[in-house]
Amino acid sequence: MDRDWMRQKLEAFDELVTQYWNVRQANGDTTQERKWLFEAEPTVLKILRCLNPNLTEADVLGEDAWQGLTVNVNQVRRGIGILADMDEWTSRLAPDAPSMPADGFHPWVWDAARTFWESKHYRAAVHAAATSINAHLQDKLGRRDLSDAKLVQEALSDKAPEPGKPRLRIPGDQKDPGVQTRQRGALQLGQGAYFALRNPAAHETGDLAEQEALEQLATFSVLARLIDQCQVVT
Length: 234
Fold this sequence. Notes:
Largest sheet: 2 strands, antiparallel
Oligomer: single chain
Number of helices: 8
Structural class: mainly alpha
């Protein structure tokens, strides 16, 4: 909605009503003012019904038994009040939403991303977080031959470990279906994070919006915690 335009229309109508009554009380010819009021009324009604759908049958202008003009200006002034306060209602009456402090992310993520974040280089912050997780995963497995999505695939594979190919296992009974499900989920999350988030952060141009970058860092934080909690199996 164009609130400024709506308010301007209502305020102009209110001023026109005042002008009409001033001319009428002075026993002047109100023909022109009546014309202007009736021309403006359809738009005013549209605005009022947009602000309050229950006003579908409401009228602003009418005529009394002596063919005199009646004006329900109170509805117009209510509309002006609504439009004046709408922005404040949005900010002050909105339900409290949970916040996500970035310094609560896993240290592998936030320690790497913080400098870029503070300088508002959000895409670089996401890339730094992904690179950091990759480096910690390489250290955990003692591998330098793979990186990123391929490394995650090898690390979280449900295949048995091989010489030179240790695996990561979600803590718990490996025969438990719930543990097995989490293992597969960790693998899919890791690959998805690198394919969908890290690769664009590394190769695309233009920065990310702050909210989008925060959500991506949160995704990498979840992945980092899973990897950090996993046990290395050789």
